[in-house]
Design goal:
Oligomer: heterotrimer
Radius of gyration of chain A: 18 Å
Helix content of chain C: over 70%
Shape of chain A: globular
Number of helices of chain A: 10
Shape of chain C: globular
Number of strands of chain A: 10
Number of domains of chain A: 1
Low-confidence stretches of chain C: 284-291
Number of strands of chain C: 2
CATH topology of chain C: MetI-like fold
Mean pLDDT of chain C: 87
Distance between the termini of chain C: 41 Å
Chains: A alpha/beta (261), B mainly alpha (276), C mainly alpha (291)
Number of helices of chain C: 14
Radius of gyration of chain C: 23 Å
Largest sheet of chain C: 2 strands, antiparallel
Structural class of chain C: mainly alpha
CATH class of chain A: Alpha Beta
Number of domains of chain C: 1
CATH class of chain C: Mainly Alpha
Largest interface: B-C, 78 and 83 residues
CATH superfamily of chain C: MetI-like
Order of helices and strands of chain A: EEEHEEHEHHHHEHEHEEHH
CATH superfamily of chain A: P-loop containing nucleotide triphosphate hydrolases
CATH architecture of chain A: 3-Layer(aba) Sandwich
Order of helices and strands of chain C: HHHEEHHHHHHHHHHH
Low-confidence stretches of chain A: none
Distance between the termini of chain A: 23 Å
CATH topology of chain A: Rossmann fold
Helix content of chain A: 25-40%
Largest sheet of chain A: 6 strands, mixed
Chain lengths: 261, 276, 291
């Protein structure tokens, strides 16, 4: 699909996939996906279960490498560099592309320690710096007021919605360029979902956001542009409004209308 | 026969057997403690054996037991936990892992007398360490290795899978993930395994007597021969040196083992509750 | 980045070396025991070694038959005592007891496993042996005494592995049987125990291995006479006792003969362990191996 020629944004794409195919052993999960993702946009990825949305997301931070038999063909460029080049520093890559998972996974430690976990890995030691980071990230995810008095208490005591915002704050601590979210609100109540969507809108200013969701309405609410994946194939990509009102492909129309899912 | 009647009889027989088993255990413990506790006193625990153990206390054997057990644990723990980490985090199931597991399982089945023989021929004789804490602890550590591997592996596997993904996605290397996420969470289970091994080491006799010897004086170096409580107990009982002191030594052994079992249980319960 | 990969590879290599420790130790033990013990077996003739009944080290005569028979008798006796008792406890704890009772009794059984073998032997000498001597005759130090003590010592092994096997049987088996209107005992007897059969057999075989390998307790209660036991009340010497009793002062050929005893013991145990593992891997065995 041709990249959108948005006249106001002449910066190069943050992420560029060219013929990206992915395999788990002999099973092909992504079929030659080609698309661009622009900086500071919220890019939605929708599609039925098993369509390869998560696989694509996890190709971006090379989390798929951890699974036996994972193999990639084609090019995947982040900020101009092919991340599947042999010399790539994968640890550094994962700091630049932070990921939030479908189920909030707080580590069994305090709220403070959860947020600085990544920073400590990156070598940040001074307690003043760490405190700054914690406050900054919690403010960005609207959690600061709620937890500022119990930073030392266990993160497991937070509610589901709070935990997910904590996970978001956790990756912000690494000052990433891109935020990857894999169905982040699928287990949350509507209010928490709303809070997170609102946070994403605010974060858009400083980050590029890629949101995989099985809830098309969420993509409609939040995403600037959206891609529709079906059985590993990129069917259509374009501005959300346009795709949702006048989809170019019959299959997109069927999916959006709920004829299958 | 009427099935209900059959069940009543069967249940009765089973109950009886269980009672017999429990009775045997309780009887043994009470018997030793009844005859052994009166012998226990501060001087019994703090004085060295006198006249081959006919008089005096068991202090040097307590020290011997502690030193030998500690040394064996210090050797076996890195080996065992390292093996567990490798098997769970650094490789998928393949021929190599099966070989390693097979080795550990076989090692677990070898009787202690064979370990004693082996330790004697390799450490005491061929390597020239003589009857010493060095020979004894090396031999003992090999006996504890399979248990530590097994319990560590279980503990590591019970750490939720998601933690690993989170750690990687926050920019950790595999080793950082192991040390900062996996091990802290698996620690209670690993420690439980170590404590269990301590219990085993304390009661071990056959392997120890042929490698660490049975010297009664306080060990001065890692090359000193040293007697453990179980060896002391065995010698006292078998040579008929002092029945009283034998009971006393046995009482100390039983109390130590009881204490270790209770510690293991409370640790395991705390661990289970933490994750529930 | 290359430095990152290199460090990761180093860590993996270091851990692999550690992981090989168990295998390495096993290999070294096997090599040493066999290299010290086999030459003499062939020098004196394997047949004479295994089936000769004259063990006179001072005359260079090394026949192991009395000890082999001794080990077999004592182990068999241990199974006669340990298996019914152990199975009964295992069945009771899994099928007939409340979870609360189980929580109390399981630690008790594991405590049994923690008691040192020398303590078992001591209690045998002080209580069991005189009892046998006064009520049944003979020196008291006998096959019977050793069998009873060993039978008790292998209880924890048989009980815990049998419990695991019984608990690994899918609940649907039990529920299906009860739904047909059988009593709990009938279900246990006809469905649960047969389903757990391979695990139970594994537990028995492992118990056998423990019994054959036990040394200290046996030395204290078995009498240690080098003669094929004529009755359960006769004294007996096992392969393990043979090694432990004479190792302290043996030298030269005598010492090598003791190593050869170790070789025989080692082989028997390895065979038993392999049977046990093979048995527990078959369907209906321990839960870990079945899906």
């Amino acid at each position: 699909m041709t990249p959108m020629t948005d006249l106001t944004d002449l910066a190069p794409p943050a992420i560029r996939a060219r013929g990206l195919s992915h395999f788990f052993g002999s099973v092909q999960t992504l079929k030659s996906v080609t698309l661009d993702i622009w900086p500071h946009e919220i890019f939605g990825i929708i599609g039925p279960a098993g369509s390869g949305k998560s696989t694509f997301l996890r190709s971006l931070n090379r989390l798929n490498d951890l699974i036996r038999g994972s193999r990639v063909e084609g090019r995947l460029e982040v900020e101009g560099r092919n991340i599947y080049d042999p010399g790539t520093n994968v640890v550094e890559l994962r700091r630049r592309l932070g990921m939030v998972f479908a189920t909030p996974v707080p580590l069994p430690r305090s709220i403070f320690e959860n947020i600085v976990f990544g920073s400590r890995l990156a070598g940040v030691r001074k307690s003043g710096e760490l405190k700054e980071i914690v406050r900054d990230c919690l403010e960005k995810t609207s959690l600061w007021e709620e937890v500022k008095d119990r930073l030392a208490s266990s993160a497991l005591k937070l509610s589901g919605g709070q935990q997910q915002r904590l996970c978001l704050a956790r990756i912000l601590a690494l000052r990433p360029d891109v935020i990857l979210l894999d169905e982040p609100t699928s287990g949350l109540d509507p209010i928490s979902t709303m809070k997170i969507e609102e946070t994403l809108r605010q974060l858009k200013r400083d980050y590029t956001i890629i949101l995989v969701t099985n809830n098309t309405k969420q993509a409609g609410r939040v995403a600037d542009r959206t891609a529709f994946l079906l059985a590993g194939e990129l069917v259509e990509v374009g501005p959300t409004d346009q795709m949702f009102t006048a989809p170019a492909d019959r299959r997109t129309d069927d999916y959006l209308r709920g004829r299958f899912g | 026969m009427n099935p209900r009647r059959e069940q009543k009889i069967a249940a009765g027989v089973l109950w009886f057997f269980v009672l017999v088993t429990v009775f045997i255990l309780l009887f043994m413990i009470f018997f030793i403690l009844r005859k052994g506790l009166p012998v226990l006193s501060l001087s019994f625990l703090a004085r060295n054996p006198v006249d081959m153990g006919r008089a005096g206390g068991i202090f040097s054997t307590i020290i011997g037991t502690i030193v030998l057990t500690l040394a064996a644990i210090l050797i076996a723990t890195p080996l065992g936990v390292g093996t567990a980490i490798y098997l769970t985090e650094y490789t998928w199931e393949n021929r190599l892992t099966r070989v390693i597991r097979f080795g550990a399982e076989c090692l677990a089945g070898i009787p202690s007398i064979i370990f004693g023989l082996f330790g004697f021929i390799l450490f005491v004789t061929k390597l020239g360490f003589g009857w010493s804490i060095l020979s004894g602890s090396l031999t003992l550590s090999f006996m504890l290795l399979p248990t530590i591997i097994r319990t560590s592996e279980e503990a590591i596997r019970s750490v939720p899978k998601d933690f690993r993904e989170v750690s990687f996605s926050l920019g950790s290397t595999r080793w950082q993930m192991v040390t900062r996420v996996i091990l802290p969470s698996a620690l209670p289970g690993i420690v439980t395994g170590i404590i269990l091994s301590v219990g085993r080491a304390i009661g071990e006799t056959a392997a120890v007597i042929f490698t660490a010897g049975s010297a009664l004086n306080l060990p001065t170096s890692v090359f000193s021969s040293s007697r453990t409580m179980s060896v002391h107990f065995y010698i006292l009982a078998r040579e008929g040196i002092s029945l009283d002191n034998a009971y006393g030594t046995a009482a100390v052994l039983i109390i130590a083992i009881l204490g270790i079992n209770i510690l293991t249980y409370s640790l395991m319960n705390k661990y289970i509750r933490k994750f529930q | 980045m290359n430095k990152l990969d290199r460090n990761e590879r180093l860590v993996k290599l270091a851990l692999l070396v550690l992981a090989f420790s168990a295998v390495a130790v096993l290999a070294v033990i096997t090599v040493f025991i066999f290299s010290e013990g086999t030459p003499i077996m062939f020098r004196h003739g394997l047949g004479k070694f295994l089936f000769g009944s004259d063990w006179y080290p001072s005359e260079n005569s090394f026949g192991l038959l009395p000890m082999i028979v001794g080990s077999l008798f004592v182990t068999f006796g241990a199974l006669v005592i340990g298996v019914p008792l152990g199975l009964a406890c295992a069945i009771f704890l899994t099928e007939f007891s409340s979870p609360r009772l189980r929580r109390v009794l399981k630690p008790v059984i594991e405590l049994l496993a923690g008691i040192p073998s020398v303590v078992y032997g001591f209690i045998g000498v002080v209580i069991l042996v005189p009892f046998i001597r006064t009520t049944l005759g003979g020196p008291g130090l006998s096959v019977l005494a050793a069998s009873i003590i060993l039978g008790i010592m292998i209880l924890p092994t048989i009980i815990s592995i049998s419990i695991d096997s019984l608990q690994a049987v899918p609940r649907s088996y039990r529920e299906g049987s009860i739904a047909l209107g059988t009593t709990r005992w009938q279900t246990t007897r006809m469905v649960m125990v047969p389903a757990a059969r391979s695990g139970i057999i594994a537990s028995i075989v492992l118990g056998m291995g423990r019994a054959i390998g036990e040394t200290m307790a046996v030395i204290m209660v078995a009498g240690n006479a080098v003669a094929i036991p004529g009755s359960p009340l006769s004294p007996v010497r096992t392969l393990t006792s043979n090694i432990a009793l004479e190792m302290g002062y043996a030298s030269g050929e005598h010492r090598q003969a003791l190593f050869a005893t170790g070789v025989i013991l080692f082989i028997i145990i390895m065979i038993l362990n392999t049977i046990a593992t093979a048995s527990s891997r078959r369907k209906g065995g321990k839960g870990k191996n079945s899906r």
